[in-house]
Design a protein that fits this description.
alpha+beta, Ribosomal Protein S5, domain 2, 4-stranded mixed β-sheet, 31% strand, globular
């Protein structure tokens, strides 16, 4: 189990992560129920044991807490994927009712993120929809992975973001599968 703790003037995050879990155990309390729901989808569908306890200055807004969880989760994922040889690449075409998202990931050591999440609402579940792109970007940079999320079409904003989280979960699950051989011709990632 990898643990990451981050305490600032704005947030206090306690996070524990184990990937490739046979029976995922998920306990999340960020004070933002919709964020908890999305993180639960990521962990449950990705086969992770994940525990997150967050206190943040939510009276100000949702930015600091969501960003700091993304930092911690990214750092934990980086440690997890560096511990073993992995398949490295993962992808998922994920339907969520009328929404369709494509996700691709590379565990490469070069953090980068491209997202296409064309929300039609400014808030969803009490969270600014602009925060989802920022969450994925911050997560990818700290995990040192390439992450691409492209929504092809949707009509329901909830399905748009939940499909993205589930797509990321399944792409990471594939990429994190243990592999006996190196997946780079460079010799090191």
């Amino acid at each position: 189990m990898i643990t990451i703790n981050r305490k600032t003037k704005e947030t206090n995050i306690e996070l524990a992560l184990k990937v490739n879990s046979q029976n995922p155990q998920v306990t999340i309390d960020t004070g933002l129920p919709f964020f908890d729901h999305m993180l639960d989808q990521l962990a449950s569908h990705g086969a992770w044991d994940l525990s997150i306890k967050m206190t943040a200055d939510l009276k100000v807004d949702d930015h600091h807490g969501i960003e700091d969880v993304a930092i911690c989760l990214g750092k934990a994922l980086y440690k997890a994927w560096k511990e073993q040889n992995n398949h490295r690449y993962g992808q998922r075409l994920l339907p969520m009712d009328e929404s369709l998202s494509m996700v691709a990931v590379d565990l490469c050591g070069r953090g980068y993120c491209v997202t296409n999440l064309p929300f039609t609402m400014e808030q969803l579940g009490g969270i600014s929809t602009e925060m989802w792109q920022h969450f994925f970007y911050t997560f990818a940079i700290n995990a040192q992975i390439n992450l691409h999320i492209d929504n092809r079409y949707f009509s329901n904003n909830h399905h748009l973001i939940e499909g993205a989280f589930k797509g990321v979960a399944y792409a990471l699950k594939e990429a994190l599968e243990p592999n006996q051989t190196s997946t780079t011709t460079k010799g090191v990632l």
